[in-house]
Amino acid sequence: MNVIFAVTIGLMFALGVFQLLRRDLIKTAMGFYILFTAINLLFIAVGAFNGVFPAYAQNVERGAISDPLVQALLLTAIVISFGSYAILLGLIAVSARRYQTADSDTLDQLKG
After folding, report:
1. What domain range includes position 44?
2. Is 55 contained in some domain?
3. C-alpha distances out from residue 90 to 14, 21, 42, Å
4. Phi, psi of 67 (to 5 degrees)
5. Tens digit of each residue's pLDDT (9 = 90 or more) over 9-62
6. Is residue 40 situated within a structural domain?
7. CATH of the domain at 84
8. Residue 28: inside a domain, yes or no?
9. For every residue of 2-21, which 3-state class applies, written as one string?
10. For residue 24, what are the β-bridge partners?
11. Are 47 and 70 in contact (CB under 8 A)?
């Protein structure tokens, strides 16, 4: 299961970077969102409990231990990624409304 999870995260990172390199700003924003999701999945994979108890927790029942730090980091990452994505979509909407295009090459050639 860990190999499948690692391959999925790697494919999501690759797809996100591929989308970031596109010309359309909407597809670039989708690439950012895919990267944010891949990072959240990476946090889940890193913080997964593998069933081995540390030495200080030998007297704890099986399945009763969970690391709250990973959960707090994941919730924080979700909130930050959602806020960043909302700002990015807002900037793209303003830019597309002002210049009547969402193509980054066309926006690059505009002066003033």
Report:
1. 2-49+66-109
2. no
3. 25, 20, 27
4. -90, 110
5. 999 999 999 999 988 889 999 999 999 999 998 888 877 666 665 555 555 555
6. yes
7. 1.10.287.3510
8. yes
9. HHHHHHHHHHHHHHHHHHHC
10. 103
11. yes
Q: How many domains does the chain have?
A: 1
What CA–CA distance (Å, rounded) separates 39 from 9? Answer: 8
Q: What are 50-108's pLDDT values in tens digits?
A: 666 555 555 555 554 566 788 888 899 999 999 999 999 999 999 888 888 888 777 77
Distance CA 25, CA 108 (A): 12
Give domain status of residue 25, yes or no: yes
Shortest CA distance to 44 belongs to which of 81, 85, 72?
72
Residue type at 61? Answer: E
- Helix or strand (DSSP H, E) at 105: helix 104-109
Q: Mapped to the 3 state alphabet, what secondary structure does 36-83 carry?
A: HHHHHHHHHHHCCCCCCCCHHHCCCCCCCCCCHHHHHHHHHHHHHHHH
- What is the model's pTM? 0.75
